[in-house]
From TrEMBL:
Family per record: Belongs to the uridine kinase family.
SUPFAM superfamilies in the cross-refs: P-loop containing nucleoside triphosphate hydrolases (SSF52540)
Entry keyword 4Fe-4S: no
Source species of the chain: Jeotgalibaca arthritidis
One Gene Ontology term from the biological process aspect of the record: CTP salvage
Catalytic activity: uridine + ATP = UMP + ADP + H(+); cytidine + ATP = CMP + ADP + H(+)
Keywords: ATP-binding, Cytoplasm, Kinase, Nucleotide-binding, Transferase
Protein name from the UniProt record: Uridine kinase
Biochemical pathway: Pyrimidine metabolism; UMP biosynthesis via salvage pathway; UMP from uridine: step 1/1; Pyrimidine metabolism; CTP biosynthesis via salvage pathway; CTP from cytidine: step 1/3
A Pfam family per the record: PRK
Coiled coil start-end: none
Domain of life: Bacteria
Residues that, per the record, bind ATP: 17-24
């Protein structure tokens, strides 16, 4: 992609929250609101670390809700390239083999970049690249119900396995690493995509920032 030196810096919007909080619904709302602009979604889930050097038995022990599970160096490098209007090759994670696959997804830079993931506000380097930071704040009970429904219907999991993983890993990691990042958010949305008033206020704020940016 040929870069126009006069192009404005893309607006970077971070959307975070716990598993089952409604991050995807909020990100989709932003997409729909600003569909007339060039916009892309960069998901942290694609950036789990490559573990091909580890035996498969060791990979099975990976805690995907811990900051150490992510390759933030690659994530930040790709985001910085997009901000400078450089195309990237986004990695793809193979959940069946618990490591990065050999595939990549070509991604071209856009005017608006939505960065989504459970721990995007945990790393100060990532936070510093964001213009707007959104935290989707949803009660634990609602999140576990959503997770049970999703994992059973879409991923073929058993009820016992979902509950065991939630209590042993997901919930403690949420309270240790994810929830504390709420203090870094510019906007907090209770109950995720079902809170239409909060989403309207958020998109209005984003529109205001985009308008101010276009005047610069």
């Amino acid at each position: 992609m040929e870069v126009n030196v006069n192009m404005k810096r893309p607006i970077v919007i971070g959307v975070t929250g716990g598993s089952g909080s409604g991050k995807t619904s909020v990100s989709r709302a932003i997409f729909e609101k600003f569909s007339d602009l060039s916009i892309l979604l960069l998901e942290q889930d694609y950036y789990y670390k490559d573990q091909s050097h580890l035996p498969f038995e060791e990979r099975l022990k990976t805690n995907y809700d811990h900051p150490f599970a992510f390759d933030n160096d690659r994530f930040i490098s790709d985001l910085e390239d997009l901000i400078h209007y450089k195309s990237i090759e986004q990695p793809v994670y193979d959940y069946a083999n618990h490591t990065r696959s050999n595939q990549v997804i070509p991604r071209d830079p856009k005017e608006v970049i939505i960065v989504e993931g459970i721990l995007i506000l945990e790393d100060e380097r990532l936070r510093n690249l964001m213009d707007i930071k959104v935290y989707v704040d949803t009660d634990d009970d609602i999140r576990i119900i959503r997770r049970i429904k999703r994992d059973i219907e879409e991923r073929g999991r058993t009820l016992d396995s979902v509950i065991d993983q939630y209590l042993s890993v997901v919930k403690p990691m949420h309270h240790q690493f994810i929830e504390p990042t709420k203090k870094f958010a510019d906007i907090i949305i209770p109950e995720g995509g079902k809170n239409q008033v909060a989403i309207d206020l958020m998109t209005t704020k984003i529109a205001s920032i985009l308008q101010e940016s276009s005047k610069d």
